[in-house]
Amino acid sequence: MTAKLNIDEANNALKDLNSCLSEDKKWILQDGKLTKSFTFRNFIRAFGWMTEVAIWAEKLKHHPEWFNVYNRVDVALTTHDAGGISELDFKLAAKMESLLA
To answer: Do residues 80 and 2 make contact, with C-beta atoms less than 8 angstroms apart?
Structure first.
């Protein structure tokens, strides 16, 4: 089981995750979850990215909460077994970012 991060650990991990992202593309901590909205050129790009993320999520055995409408995907990550945000959430978020390239 993965351990829940305390607020300082989560904020430090958030700073590392966001270090290479522009101000308008950063992840945030909101309502006990790691969240971000992604916008793509069209539905096919959004769905293709979601498919790639789904493969990695299955490998990590960690599945995102997400919502897709046309070219937008809203993501919320939390580790239910840990009762909050864990390293696994930041690992999946980093993988999501790498799949954008």
So the answer is: no
Residue 12 tokens read as 């430090």
Which residue in 80, 78, 93 sits closest to 31, CA to CA? 78
Which CATH number applies to 7-19+26-98? 3.30.1360.20
Specify the DSSP class assigned to residue 3. Answer: P
pLDDT of 67-85, one tens digit each? Answer: 999 999 999 999 998 889 9
Look up the pTM and report it. 0.94
Concatenating the DSSP letter of every residue in 72-92 gives EEEEEE-BGGGTB-BHHHHHH
Measured in whole angstroms, how far is the alpha carbon of residue 44 from the centre of its chain?
20
Tens digits of residue pLDDT in 27-74: 999 999 999 999 999 999 999 999 999 999 999 999 999 999 999 999
What are the structural domain ranges in the chain?
Answer: 7-19+26-98
